[in-house]
Amino acid sequence: MSDELLIEAAMAARANCYCPYSSFPVSAALLAESGKIYTGVNVENASYGLTICAERVAVGSAIAAGERKFEKLVVVVRGGGSPCGACRQVLNEFAPELPVLMVDELGRISSETTLAELLPRAFGPQSL
Ligand code: THU
């Protein structure tokens, strides 16, 4: 699967972001080992603290479909910013070495890293 296809999927999902409170759309595309792509968008709530990030929506959707292993994550954020700490932790559960592409609102890669770099010395299943 090319990065371009994954970026395209994340960019397309951006249209479905639900962010009336922050006006800050975030979308994600997660490539599973099966070859399927699972997308996510931020889902905000009138009770602000209940907002769910795009990355966690993508992971939840993939897990619900029976996926357990992941190969790459693309996150589209204005300015190409990186996943929040909560999302890093949730991703670590399934894919501690996950390659992560951060992409800006025009579809340009701003940074290419891994979850291990974003969340060093993580607390995970092996910690229990
Ligand atoms: N957001 C995400 O969807 N993912 C992140 O990793 C960081 C933040 C969303 C949550 C909220 O809807 C908006 O961005 C502003 O914080």
CATH class: Alpha Beta
N-to-C order of helices and strands: HEEHEHEEH
Secondary structure category: alpha+beta
The total count of helices amounts to: 4
Helix percent band = 25-40%
Mean pLDDT: 98
Shape: globular
Total E-strand runs: 5
Oligomer: single chain
Number of domains: 1
Which strand order does the major sheet show?
2-1-3-4-5
Spans where pLDDT lies below 50 across 5 or more residues = none
Bound molecules: tetrahydrodeoxyuridine
CATH homologous superfamily descriptor: Cytidine Deaminase, domain 2
**Main β-sheet description:** 5 strands, mixed
In short:
The chain is α+β, with helices and mostly antiparallel strands and 128 residues long.
Describe this structure in words.
The chain is of the alpha+beta class. It has one domain: Cytidine Deaminase, domain 2 (3-Layer(aba) Sandwich). The protein contains four helices and five strands; from the N terminus they run H-E-E-H-E-H-E-E-H. It has helices at 3-13, 54-64, 85-92, 115-118, and strands at residues 26-32, 37-41, 70-77, 99-103, 109-114. The chain has a five-stranded mixed beta sheet. A hairpin with a 4-residue loop joins strand 1 and strand 2 (37-41). It is globular and about 40 Å long. The model has no long low-confidence stretch (mean pLDDT 98). The structure holds tetrahydrodeoxyuridine. Tetrahydrodeoxyuridine is lined by residues 19, 22, 24, 26, 42, 44, 51, 53-55, 83-84, 87.
